[in-house]
Specification:
By secondary structure, this protein is α/β, with parallel strands linked by helices. About 35% of the residues lie in helices and about 15% in strands. The strands form four sheets. It has an eight-stranded parallel β-sheet. A seven-stranded mixed β-sheet has the order 1-9-6-7-5-3-4, with helices on one face. Helix 2 links the parallel strand 3 and strand 4.
Length: about 525
């Protein structure tokens, strides 16, 4: 309260100091369509809405609608200084959230802005939530600050009608190479939600660390989770920690997709339990960054007891539809063993009620009915490997597109980027945006493309600031590729809308990379 009162006094004092100066030109609302991801339909027109201290947030009687309205109020109150009561009754001007049947699907919405207020209408709560994220971007960037700002708080007049292109719009955070706490993951979730991303893929196990508690195999975390790349102390999530992440993500309409990578990328597990090794000898813990050297012992029955236990316990605390079984870079597993392993593991996932996702190497085995392959190849990936993926898609396997030389957030922007890697090439902001998921793999049916996902591997990523720098601004482009209609896809228009996000990220404390390809506002 003291901070708010102090800020109000500063604003008043500033007004008094400039009282004798020439009047400032009247404030204008930003363009209605200056939003990322680009909405499906934008029709500007009419008077702008001005949010004032008399406004209220009117919500449906449903618990979800009220919760979304309360989240919006929590964002707007610190910067505006307004009370913004959240109510299901009354006719005060302001912001109205409505749940009503219509052509919105699960996640779509309509936003209408005019002199009397802003109304967001959706058929489902997820649509209301996404509409609220659009409203945030239509307000001045200072609305994201946590102290009172002078305003004014204008929203351009007109109508936005919006639905997503793809149902799966994901981002992956690798918590195995370097461990990130529950609060750090929540912070990333908030960033993802602003751009309508709806899947959080957590890479929970790898050679360098096992990050999720499994009661039946406790040394996976107490020993296998005790380090990370470079030899740091590592860490892991208790089941309660993981469930808190799942709960928080769900409150922002993100579904958590847990990944246990196997049969390769398993040194942390092999070091924890000698019996998982073919020779019965546990290797030492690993803190380097090389890949492809580890493998579960495919010929041992204990391996499948282990897999069953891990999947059973993880599925029980994962309300989402998917469970990712990895399957990439299994260079120490013969092709025959790899196929046999995947043939046994996929039914275990189904037994516990989840849909299999695997990296695209899964298509070299026998993808289960309904399985989804996550493609991470490059533009110049071997034609035979691409053909294998396309054939699987033609036979019913779904695809998530994550081409490493387009959408891997850990790739360097330029040769001088201090973080990240360059094995897939340099990925500047334009390259990350300027491709079409619908035509990226010629021959793959459009119906097979489930969406896109932007992975962030963390060999060189240690802090929140590192995440910010590598994810932004490229994450916004990935979100647009997943949400916006193909017809809106245009780099020259996008970079202008992207530039408008810079002040918003600054207000949110996101330290982004100021790419010279983008016309950022002067600081």
């Amino acid at each position: 309260m003291a901070r708010v009162l102090g800020s109000l006094l500063l604003v008043a004092a500033a007004g008094a100091f400039t009282a004798g100066a020439a009047p400032a030109p009247p404030a204008k609302a930003g363009p209605l369509g200056r939003v990322v991801p680009a909405p499906a339909s934008v029709t500007p027109g009419g008077s702008a809405y001005r949010l004032t201290r008399d406004a209220a947030i009117r919500v449906p009687d449903s618990g979800e609608g009220r919760r979304i309205g309360t989240q919006l109020a929590d964002i707007l109150r610190p910067s505006t200084g307004y009370a913004l009561p959240v109510t299901s009754h009354g006719h005060r001007s302001g912001i109205q959230l409505r749940l009503k049947s219509g052509p919105f699907g699960t996640e779509g919405y309509r936003l209408v802005s005019g002199r009397g207020g802003v109304t967001i209408t959706a058929a489902r709560p997820a649509g209301l939530f996404h509409g609220v994220q659009t409203l945030r971007q239509l307000l001045p960037a200072a609305v994201e600050k946590d102290s009172v700002q002078p305003g004014p708080w204008l929203v351009a007049g007109g109508t936005i009608v919006d639905t997503p292109r793809y149902a799966y719009r994901g981002a992956m955070l690798d918590v195995s190479r370097h461990f990130f706490t529950v609060e750090q993951v929540k912070r990333y979730i908030d960033q993802l939600a602003l751009y309508k991303i709806n899947q959080l893929h957590l890479h929970l196990s790898d050679d360098q660390g096992w990050r999720i508690a499994v009661n039946s195999w406790p040394r996976l975390t107490t020993y296998g989770g005790s380090t990370e790349v470079g030899g740091g102390k590592g860490g892991y999530y208790t089941k309660a920690d993981y469930q808190e992440i799942v709960r928080y993500a769900a409150s922002r309409y993100l579904e958590v997709v847990p990944e246990i990578d196997m049969p390769g990328h398993t040194n942390a597990a092999l070091a924890s339990y000698a019996d998982l090794n073919c020779d019965g000898v546990a290797p030492p813990l690993y803190t380097g960054t090389e890949v492809g050297f580890s493998s579960l012992c495919v010929g041992k029955e204990i391996t499948y007891d282990f897999v069953d236990d891990v999947i059973r316990e993880l599925a029980a605390i994962t309300p989402g539809r998917y469970l990712h079984i990895g399957g990439d870079e299994a260079h120490s597993t013969s092709h025959e063993d790899y196929v046999g392993f995947m043939d046994r593991v996929q039914p275990i996932v189904a037994k516990y009620g989840k849909t299999v996702i695997g990296w695209h190497q899964l298509t070299g085995a026998h993808p289960a009915k309904g399985a989804i392959a996550q493609y991470w190849g490059l533009d110049d990936t071997d034609a035979a490997e691409k053909a294998q993926v396309v054939k699987a898609a033609q036979n019913g396997t779904g695809l998530i597109l994550s081409p490493a030389d387009r959408i891997y957030l850990d790739m360097k922007y330029t040769e001088d980027t201090p973080l990240g890697q360059d094995w897939a090439g340099l990925v500047d902001v334009k390259r990350a945006y300027d491709w079409d998921p619908g035509s990226y793999l010629p021959g793959a049916p459009a119906s097979a493309i489930r969406g896109v996902e932007a992975p962030l591997w963390t060999e060189t990523i240690v802090t929140d600031a590192d995440i910010d720098y590598m994810a932004f601004p490229r994450l916004a482009g990935a979100a647009e590729l997943g949400w916006s209609p193909a017809a809106t896809h245009d780099w020259d228009a996008y970079k202008v809308r992207l530039a408008a996000q810079g002040p918003r990220w600054e207000a949110l404390g996101i330290g982004y990379y100021r790419s010279p390809q983008v016309p950022w506002p002067a600081k």
